[in-house]
Here is the input.
Amino acid sequence: MSARILEGKVFAQQFKDDAGRRAEVLREKYGVNPGLAVIIVGSNPASQVYVRNKNKSCEALGIYSEVVEMPETTSKQELIAKIDELNLDKRIHGILVQLPLPAQIAKDEAEILNRIDPAKDVDGFHPVNVGRLVTGEDGLVPCTPAGCIRMLELADIPLDGKRAVVIGRSNIVGKPMLHLLLAKNATVTICHSHTENLAAITREADILVAAIGKPNFVTADMVKPGAAVIDVGINRIAPKKLVGDVDFEAVKEVAGAITPVPGGVGLLTVAMLMQNVVKAAEKAVCK
Ligand SMILES: Nc1nc(=O)c2c([nH]1)NC[C@@H]1CN(c3ccc(C(=O)N[C@@H](CCC(=O)O)C(=O)O)cc3)C=[N+]21
Here is the structure.
């Protein structure tokens, strides 16, 4: 039997509708419109879809959005000066520095991201927000993992007591995913490039999250029959061809539920970004 396809747009639309209603309340009751600033340094082609989808979503929800384009050769000091300016800007409730950064400042990534006011850190990458996630305090949660968890809940896929396996240990997906699944009482295992016997571990997963960045990494023999498979990968294998980390055609015959790429998790990421911008604006208003 073929798996249930978890269509990203169905879930993303619900998150965006909710963000739109809350933005409307902020405008009507407080005269405040949520605002997002996206800083792009240089031109990374992989980032362009994301920027396009973010702009479209902001427009649809009436959220103010500003794209700050800085040259490829921007120095750390120049980027930090821009962040400082946006930290003080009253119209801006969310700041996102598009990753990856160009080579000459890539090594300064942590210092740069840590400069963003945690209250405006809509990516949830600042150590203050990471700490809140780990301890279970309310904060801004990274968009991709947050979207995956909300989708699993809306899709009625049980997490409590279940085995969840995350492949990938990035700060952006793998690690926050671990904490979100743990908070839902799943038993969580993280696998990564040094994991021995990876397939034996993934075959135990009731929920399998693939965030590796390698096309077709997860094959059908690695999946437990009936498992929910969440594909976080976005791999461009040709100018117009996007694939995930999961061998979709084969795995959908084994899994119970699966997300497609495109049309899956990517759309949730954008929707959760809208939620985070609105949340940051709500907190700013109620301070
Ligand atoms: N600070 C920062 N935060 C990020 O969250 C971040 C980033 N930098 N840098 C780039 C990556 C990539 N990313 C995507 C989000 C949505 C889609 C997306 O909307 N994908 C759709 C459309 C695909 C298409 O139209 O080709 C889909 O998968 O269906 C793609 C890619 C966020 N990232």
Remarks:
- The first helix runs from residue 8 to 30.
- The pocket of 5,10-Methenyltetrahydrofolate is lined by residues 47, 49-50, 53, 96-99, 123, 143, 234, 242, 261-263, 266-267, 269-270 (CB under 6 Å).
